[in-house]
Amino acid sequence: MESDEELAAIPEAMIAKDESGMKFENGRCAALTGEVGKHVGCAVYLVRPHVCRTCMPGDEECKIARAEFGFPIDGLPEPEIYEA
Ligand code: SF4
């Protein structure tokens, strides 16, 4: 769970109304910039939620998300280990 200070650092407009997490619009996080499959970024990268910090390229969550969009999951890098 994020601390009150961590939550306060995320722009309110990008947080779900029920404060359960990030706001989702059109099937994607409100903080996601760019075009999926081409180049994307996180508008709140430095203050992103903990759950986002644990997701690493090549890990299981990454593979699930890629598969959902029909992107290949073979040949991904070995995920780095997240340390809080
Ligand atoms: S890292 Fe988290 S906050 Fe940033 S765009 Fe992705 S889901 Fe949204």
Instruction: Tally the helices.
Output: 3
- Give the termini separation: 12 Å
Can you count the beta strands? 4
Element-by-element helix/strand order: HEEEEHH
Overview of the structural elements:
By secondary structure, the protein is of the alpha+beta class. It has two domains: 48 residues, no CATH class; 36 residues, no CATH class. 23% of the residues lie in helices and 14% in strands. It has a two-stranded antiparallel ribbon with strand order 1-2. It has a two-stranded antiparallel ribbon with strand order 3-4. It is globular. The relative contact order is 0.14. Bound molecules: iron/sulfur cluster (SF4). Iron/sulfur cluster binds next to loops.
Keywords:
84 residues, alpha+beta, two-stranded antiparallel ribbon, 4 strands, binds iron/sulfur cluster
In brief:
With 84 residues, this protein is α+β, with helices and mostly antiparallel strands. Helix content is 23%, strand content 14%. It has helices spanning 4-8, 50-54, 60-68; strands at 24-25, 28-29, 32-35, 39-42.
